[in-house]
Write a structure and sequence with these properties.
about 90 residues, alpha+beta, 3 helices
Length: about 90
């Protein structure tokens, strides 16, 4: 079951196909880091074609905000988020 913060992203943004959550060891060396090994990164943000740069940036920021909210409520969730990919389910 998806955390409500993540499920609501897919409900609000029909163009969001999915995204992944990565740890420091899963991103290129040239990406800036804070130095905290527990740091998480959003990657592989998939959206439908036709989304402009502004819409893409808005969705990206909402994904980051949802993860931040989830981690503020449940700090222990960081380990279960790291390495996961969340994708829209099509029926």
């Amino acid at each position: 079951m998806l955390p409500p913060q993540i499920a609501s992203l897919f409900a609000r943004h029909e163009e969001l196909c999915g995204f992944s959550v990565r740890g420091c060891d899963e991103i290129p060396d040239n990406c800036p880091r804070s130095g905290d090994e527990r740091e998480l990164f959003v990657g592989d943000l998939g959206v439908l074609p036709g989304v402009d740069a502004g819409q893409y940036a808005e969705i990206f920021q909402e994904v980051v905000a949802a993860l931040t909210e989830l981690l503020s409520e449940r700090p222990d969730a960081a380990e279960s988020l790291r390495g996961r990919t969340f994708a829209r389910v099509l029926h």
